[in-house]
Amino acid sequence: MADRQIMNDQDIKRALARVAHEILERNRGVEDLVIVGIHTRGVHLAQRLASNLSEFEGSEVPVANLDINLYRDDVKSRMSPRIRPTRMPVDIQGKKVVLVDDVLFTGRTVRAAMDALNDFGRPQQVQLAILLDRGHRELPIRADYVGQNVPTAPDEVVRVRLIETDGIDEVAIVRAEE
Amino acid sequence: MSLLNAIETEAQPQIEAAAVRKRRRHVLDLDDFSQQEILEVLESAEGMSEVLHRDIKKVPALRGRVVVTLFYEASTRTRISFEEAGKILSADVINMSASGSSTEKGESLLNTGLTIQAMGVDIIVIRHPHSGAPYLLAQHLDRVGIINAGDGIHAHPTQALLDLYTVKEKLGRLEGLKIVIVGDVLHSRVARSNIWGFVKMGAQVILCGPSTLLPLDMLRPSGNDDQDNPLASVQVETNLDRALEGADVVMALRLQAERQNGGFLPSMREYIRRWQVTEARLSRANPDALVMHPGPMNEGIEISSTLAHGGRSVIEQQVTNGVAIRMALLYHLSAGGE
After folding, report:
1. pTM value?
2. What is the ipTM of this complex?
3. Which of A83, B74, B287, B311 is deepest in the core (most CB within 10 A)?
């Protein structure tokens, strides 16, 4: 069965440019902003958003990486997740944090990410930017910035590939096996 | 079908890794670890090390899990670092030692293990003076993960992993390095696990010490037939100066005085003269060579005091990294369910 492409490299580029503008509009610039990417692909998207922001606004925005595996509520059912180093180069106390991930699905990753953030300080505000929202939330969580909304079936697999990790920019839906 | 699987696993690399390999339940020695799995543990330890450097060292990963440390032998660093590792990950850690327990009333190791299992414990960390004791528990307990924290003269896998981690952290790689392990290799479970670990990671291991204290049976299990012998690359050199030529890592081992009744050494003085790792001897190694010791040290016997506390020594770093490695292993055994 063929994959169904949802976004190509140009779509992703435009979506990230628009999301960057929305972040600037909502926060009236980049003051007090910290972009926090969730491992693995969220980290690369955070980098891209941050470079968009500094390009549009002319000043650097700090970027941090977060590994949320130590905060999951489903350690036992996840198969051997690796722990990657969290890098929090700035104090997030009182800052406006924009969490970045590739796909928003059940919301459990975002919940874990908010717990993880709390261990580093108390941000003034936490916002959520997502490349693709596929629905099926299990928690009361929504994104502030969305690259694209795509209705999916729960058993479908959304595959995000990025140049940094996979050599190509693409989002596709793969229907899972019956 | 295989195509679809390939696509799915690409999207979820964690699931792919687990699908290829059966989930690990026990850590008994490094001989059954693949290079890939060792790399995974080292990578996770790097993530754990970041947690160790936070102001508030606590994450909820193993909330609700129970870890028992069962020590039939004295220990400072291994036991404390396992306890610290478990507590940072929010597991409940219960310490038990042979003295003061039912062992004194004659309870066997197996019955102690079954009792602990019946209490719903998730992981047992065991140290035992008899080689193979953790294997006995692993064989008979079906609901508990076993971590070997040192068994007799056989294995000490968590120490070997922290040594690999320390070397990789300091020198940036493991492959192709020249590792010299000096001293009482025969009685050293640390050395035996390190031999497996470094060989699997593609390093060149050289064992040095009096020939009475080298584990020739381990290196050549079937005589001189090197075919299918995974440890065929390990070299033996009794002359320390020759062994140290161009070394990247020098690991001194504790001369285990309690195990020296068998007439292995002519005299302590001769041992010190020929095999003590000193500043002068180290000049033959690479200029940035690391000096390691698994502890506890006999300063002035297997290693000179100036070297043990000098600039090339990473002995304290080894202890710090021990906590990160043990966090990674506790997590590694807990993550992923049936």
Report:
1. 0.88
2. 0.83
3. A83
